[in-house]
Specification:
Number of domains: 2
Strand content: 25-35%
Bound molecules: zinc ion
Number of helices: 12
Structural class: alpha+beta
Radius of gyration: 24 Å
CATH topology of the largest domain: Aminopeptidase
Helix content: 25-40%
Number of strands: 18
CATH architecture of the largest domain: 3-Layer(aba) Sandwich
CATH class of the largest domain: Alpha Beta
Largest sheet: 8 strands, mixed
Length: 426
């Protein structure tokens, strides 16, 4: 009986929780930026090793793979990302981060660092699940792959691990599984077959003008005015070119132009973030950006055409329909319909999909609520969810430890057991 196997594996969870709580607080207090997760990786690898896993480190930079070969049967890949963000933590938690680090991707500037996306929770969940599944290995048969992935926030960590051979240590997985903590009530588990999360295209646009004295605009082509015009015109893509039944987001997150009030600059640099859920919509939005930027530059009399380069790109996160429906049934059975429910479309992006795509295996990514249930439901009831509930990447994002910690361990264990074989009775 699967239910008995679940109960047997999860029986050790309560006594493991204090240790997981300690690991979580430690990871939260010591966040590391994308591809700089050296200490994080070391701590996670040491725990895998203690639990009896064959451990491979340094995959795709700082990635870690744990392999537990436990007899014949399917291969199941569980993935957690481990990197943090350049955010100044303002949660006021006793275990809040005060870390600062050099951000190579931001030109070597010193930045504050925070686990503002909850990847410390993901790493702790996977550590808990790998420990329980190793301890109760007489309850299943097959091979377990535990992947701790670096560099998710910059979009290249999963691809880097794949390029570095993370999938070459075992046969093709029967399924690839992953999860993310979100600003929903702690203990809730949300699944969605098909497309769950958006594709991201991040672009850098350099607009060329002709600089000069702030008092003599007639001698210049002012890139500040050109940039302002581009920013406003880009807003017409979603409002005027995308149907009401389709979804897209176009955000200009950064504008840099000029050094002083009395100087007209030579150029302006914009950074644009695009979210879409369907390839035809994505292509239309990107083409519209190129058209508008080129047209505005020409209208301003720019001396050179603008340059548009890709900063990063995430694919759509799309869940295998059959595997997700199976999993939704398993979660409903284990957590009950009050806690296991359908997920909405998410405009955030993930590079999790790279593993399933590279392996040619079905993959499922789901969401686990991590915030105080009372606060979330009160905010929702007051129509103030968006205003009052901090989301991932916010300086105030602070998952509650219970029952968030145990929920994310349980999801991984019951999901893995759904695909791992029952032990052969010998
Ligand atoms: Zn994130
Ligand atoms: Zn994340």
């Amino acid at each position: 009986m699967t239910t008995d196997r679940r109960a047997a594996v999860l029986a050790g969870l309560p006594e493991l929780l204090p240790e997981l709580e300690e690991l979580y607080r430690d990871l939260h207090r010591h966040p590391e930026l994308s591809f700089a997760e050296h200490e994080t990786a070391r701590k996670l690898a040491a725990r895998l090793s203690t639990a009896g896993y064959e451990v491979h480190t340094g995959i795709g930079g700082t990635g870690v793979l744990g392999v537990l070969r436990n007899g014949p049967g399917p291969v199941v890949l569980l993935r957690a990302d481990i990197d943090a963000l350049p955010v100044q933590e303002r949660t006021g938690l006793e275990y809040a981060s005060t870390v600062r680090a050099t951000d190579e991707s931001a030109g070597g500037h010193e930045v504050p660092v925070m686990h503002a996306c909850g990847h410390d929770m993901h790493a702790t969940w996977l550590t808990g699940a790998t420990r329980l599944l190793a301890r109760q290995r007489d309850q299943w048969s097959g091979t377990l792959l535990a992947v701790f992935q670096p560099g998710e926030e910059v979009g290249d960590g999963a691809a880097a691990m794949v390029r570095d051979g993370v999938l070459e240590h075992a046969p093709t997985p029967a399924v690839v599984l992953g999860q993310h903590v979100v600003p929903g009530p702690a203990g809730w588990v949300l699944t969605r077959p098909g497309v769950l999360m958006a594709a991201t295209d991040a672009l850098r646009i350099v607009l060329h003008g002709r600089g000069g004295h702030g008092s003599r605009p007639e001698t210049t082509v002012d890139p500040a005015v050109l940039a302002a015009s581009v920013v406003l015109k880009l807003q017409t893509i979603v409002s005027r070119e995308i149907a009401a039944t389709e979804q897209a987001v176009v955000t200009v997150g950064s504008i840099r132009v000029g050094t002083a009030h009395n100087i007209i600059a030579d150029q302006a640099t914009l950074e644009v973030n695009v979210r879409t859920f369907e390839e035809p919509v994505r292509e239309r939005v990107l083409a519209a950006i190129r058209r508008i930027v080129g047209g505005e530059a020409a209208a301003a009399g720019a001396p050179h055409p603008p340059e548009i380069t890709e900063i990063t790109r995430f694919p759509v996160t799309s869940n295998d329909e059959a595997a997700t429906n199976e999993l939704a049934t398993v979660f409903q059975d284990h957590f009950g319909a009050q806690r296991a429910m359908p997920a909405p479309l998410v405009t955030g992006s993930e590079d999790f999909g790279e593993f399933g795509r590279a392996a040619g295996a079905p993959s499922v990514f789901w969401l686990v609520g991590g915030l105080d249930e009372g606060e979330v439901t009160a905010a929702a009831a007051a129509g103030r969810f968006e205003q009052d509930v901090p989301s991932n990447h916010s300086a105030l994002f602070a998952p509650v430890l219970h029952p968030t910690l145990s929920t994310g361990v349980e999801t991984l264990v019951v999901a893995a057991l759904r695909w791992l074989d029952a032990p052969t009775v010998g």
